[in-house]
């Protein structure tokens, strides 16, 4: 493989040479291949040159249709080859990383039109892989064990053979099990309570094999924000344990949909505690020859853990629109936490003695010590409720305590943004009122470059917006069902219905299932199948209707399959513990937390409609608050693309050409 796509001159600045080549690509090579190159794209290319030359962070705000992905890929690939370290492209979620490498995706386009061989590999999150241990348990215990027996029967032969693996063989990826719904998948997929370090199947596990594979990429490793943050937070601990970091040394990072990075950073820094897992880790110690004092303490701490989780259940309450239960920091609960921590501290002391006696397996001992250390740290911060947000999740096998820090900026600043490395934030929505200071401050970025370019699309002629007056009252659910029906008929399907929460989507689903007029429509629901299969089936079945609650961002379906985006309700954040904590910190919670969150998501949601210059269609908002609440109305108007006027009834819409 030729190292660079241009003749490299070592005596000249490398980045300057890349920039010259990128100019050739956009002025000559791509137009000659029939590509429509936009001025905004060329402008962005010159801006990125500064970030790569100075190894700086840059906020690249570029409207929908700018073609920003092609620009950052060119720089990232060349720079990876120059430094001999891959670039990381971090996308907002797992479905987006698939979109980048699909046959008609941007990586394949560049390879085809520029004659490049691009080594792009996916670094998927662990929960995208089958866990052999969970599969083993589910195929015996679960009601639908036939389903899991079939998965077991189809595992590659080497999984159950003793011989060493000769070459990489990918398997166990969520995509291979597209027919499983999310609930079925959760019974066999990796979760954070699996202890891969001590698992005897790890050398044959699809997750471990894929990790070895993507680490060797020469050009690009494409992963999710969550996975990148997991890499950052676990970097030191993995090195201490003698493991390789999740991602290899890299030359640059692109955060696509970069406005979502802070949420991913918080998510990756959360601690999750569960009684069953704690019990199984502690009982490992009882299998060795240990002194009676330690054995008694272990029994005691398991009992205390049981009590603690009972109290958590007692002192937490459900929140509508969220699966996160709010915890009341009751005195009884705090007392139980302190008692639990005290017993753990005594165990820690005893383990120091025990390790001197060499009666316990050293490896097991280290794992237990690390877990205790993590629990002590997590519960320590749980007690300082002003520093953290915590909640309870109810799962089929018991409840889980989740503890998340309120602010991550100090850590991000130290571990990510203090490095001298080109870091690109790419999104259509990064600035707040024209300034990037808000996002920079939240992420701990002290100095940065930035630019904004508008979308090249003619929204006034391509997009119609309707907020139907007569049928959008929140209390009038039947009215919304009727409005949605008329809109779906206007485009003969080809629609995306966006809901603010899974709960709202399920309510709609129940109603549509018994509504005779919806009977003949081809509805697809998020969660029924693996997400990238769901998206590609929506794209290929032009008249189908996709109902989703997480696809406000990133979904890229140009052409006739998506001519109608129906926003069921404005995407305000739920009243869950995370947003309650943000509201508590704000002087004007509605203006500082709820409204900006809703407007950003709304902009993203509306952005799903026009994905090419030939697209046209409708955005409909079925939420009466646009009519009844002055601030909401004026703010929603502000985020509509320039020159788009909204209509007040479906009858006012111009005919849609399907
Ligand atoms: S290595 Fe981890 S994911 Fe794989 S089988 Fe073992 S515990 Fe499960």
What is the topological layout?
Blueprint: H1 14-32, H2 39-54, E1 57-62, H3 68-83, E2 87-91, H4 94-101, H5 106-114, E3 120-123, H6 132-141, H7 145-153, H8 182-186, H9 206-214, E4 220-224, H10 225-240, E5 253-256, H11 261-268, E6 271-274, H12 275-286, H13 292-314, E7 316-319, E8 322-327, H14 331-357, H15 362-383, E9 388-395, E10 398-405, H16 409-417, E11 423-427, H17 437-443, E12 449-453, H18 459-462, E13 463-466, H19 477-490, E14 495-498, H20 502-513, E15 523-525, H21 531-540, E16 545-548, E17 564-567, H22 577-585, H23 589-606, E18 617-621, H24 625-628, H25 630-639, E19 646-647
Parallel strand pairs: 1-11, 1-12, 2-4, 2-5, 3-4, 5-11, 13-18, 13-19, 14-16, 14-17, 15-16, 17-18
Antiparallel strand pairs: 6-10, 7-8, 8-9, 9-10
This protein binds iron/sulfur cluster.
The site of iron/sulfur cluster has 12 residues, from helix 6 and helix 9.
Family: Belongs to the helicase family. DinG subfamily.
Domain Helicase ATP-binding: 27-302
InterPro entries: ATP-dep_Helicase_C (IPR006555), DinG/Rad3-like (IPR045028), Helic_SF1/SF2_ATP-bd_DinG/Rad3 (IPR014013), P-loop_NTPase (IPR027417)
């Amino acid at each position: 493989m030729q190292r660079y796509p241009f003749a490299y001159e070592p005596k000249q600045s490398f980045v300057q040479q890349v920039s010259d080549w990128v100019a050739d690509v956009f002025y000559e090579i791509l137009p000659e291949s029939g590509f429509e190159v936009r001025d905004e794209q060329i402008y962005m290319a010159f801006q990125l040159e500064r970030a790569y030359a100075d190894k700086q962070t840059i906020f690249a705000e570029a409207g929908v249709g700018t073609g920003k992905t092609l620009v950052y890929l060119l720089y990232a690939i060349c720079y990876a080859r120059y430094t001999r370290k891959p670039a990381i492209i971090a996308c907002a979620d797992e479905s987006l990383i698939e979109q980048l490498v699909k046959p008609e995706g941007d990586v394949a386009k560049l390879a085809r039109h520029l004659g490049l061989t691009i080594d792009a590999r996916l670094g998927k999150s662990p929960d995208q892989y089958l866990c052999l241990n969970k599969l083993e348990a589910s195929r015996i215990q679960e009601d639908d064990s036939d389903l899991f027996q079939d998965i077991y029967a189809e595992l590659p032969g080497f999984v159950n053979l003793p011989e060493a693996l000769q070459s990489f063989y990918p398997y166990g990826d969520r995509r291979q099990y597209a027919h499983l719904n999310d609930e079925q998948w959760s019974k066999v997929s990796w979760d954070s309570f699996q202890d891969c370090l001590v698992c005897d199947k790890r050398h044959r596990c699809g997750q471990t094999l894929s990790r070895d594979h993507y680490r060797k990429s020469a050009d690009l490793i494409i992963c999710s924000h969550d996975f990148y943050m997991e890499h950052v937070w676990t970097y030191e601990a993995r090195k201490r344990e003698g493991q390789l970091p999740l991602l290899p040394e890299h030359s640059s990072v692109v955060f696509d949909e970069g406005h979502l990075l802070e949420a991913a950073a918080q998510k990756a820094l959360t601690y999750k505690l569960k009684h069953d897992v704690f019990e199984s880790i502690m009982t490992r110690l009882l299998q060795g020859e240990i002194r009676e004092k330690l054995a008694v303490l272990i029994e005691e701490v398991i009992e205390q853990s049981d009590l603690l989780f009972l109290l958590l259940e007692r002192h937490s309450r459900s929140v509508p629109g969220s699966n996160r239960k709010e915890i009341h920091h009751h005195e009884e609960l705090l007392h139980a936490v302190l008692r639990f921590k005290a017993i753990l501290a005594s165990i820690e002391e005893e383990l120091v003695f025990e390790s001197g006696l060499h009666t316990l397996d050293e490896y097991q001992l280290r794992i237990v010590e690390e877990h205790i250390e993590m629990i002590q740290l997590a519960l320590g911060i749980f007690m300082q409720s002003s520093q953290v947000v915590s909640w309870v999740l109810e799962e089929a096998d018991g409840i889980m305590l989740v503890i998340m820090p309120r602010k991550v900026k100090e850590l991000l600043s130290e571990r990510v943004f203090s490095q001298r490395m080109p870091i690109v934030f790419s999104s259509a929505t990064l600035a707040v009122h024209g300034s990037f200071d808000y996002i920079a401050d939240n992420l701990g970025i002290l100095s940065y470059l930035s630019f904004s370019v508008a979308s090249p699309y003619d929204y006034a002629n391509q997009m119609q917006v309707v907020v139907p007056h007569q049928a959008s009252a929140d209390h009038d659910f039947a009215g919304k069902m009727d409005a949605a029906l008329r809109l779906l008929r206007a485009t003969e399907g080809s629609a995306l219905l966006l809901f603010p929460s899974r709960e709202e989507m399920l309510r709609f689903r129940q109603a549509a299932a018994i509504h005779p007029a919806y009977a003949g429509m081809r509805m697809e629901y998020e969660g029924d199948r693996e997400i990238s299969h769901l998206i590609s089936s929506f794209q290929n079945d032009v008249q189908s209707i996709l109902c989703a609650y997480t696809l406000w961002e990133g979904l890229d379906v140009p052409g006739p399959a998506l001519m109608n985006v129906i926003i069921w309700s404005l995407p305000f954040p739920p009243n869950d513990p995370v947003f309650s904590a943000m509201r508590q910190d704000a002087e004007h919670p509605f203006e500082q937390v709820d409204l900006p969150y809703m407007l950003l998501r709304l902009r993203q949601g509306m952005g799903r409609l026009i994905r090419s210059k030939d697209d046209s269609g409708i955005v409909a908002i079925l939420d009466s608050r646009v009519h009844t609440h002055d601030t909401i109305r004026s703010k929603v108007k502000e985020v509509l693309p320039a020159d788009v006027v909204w209509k007040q009834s479906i009858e006012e819409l111009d005919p849609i050409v399907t």
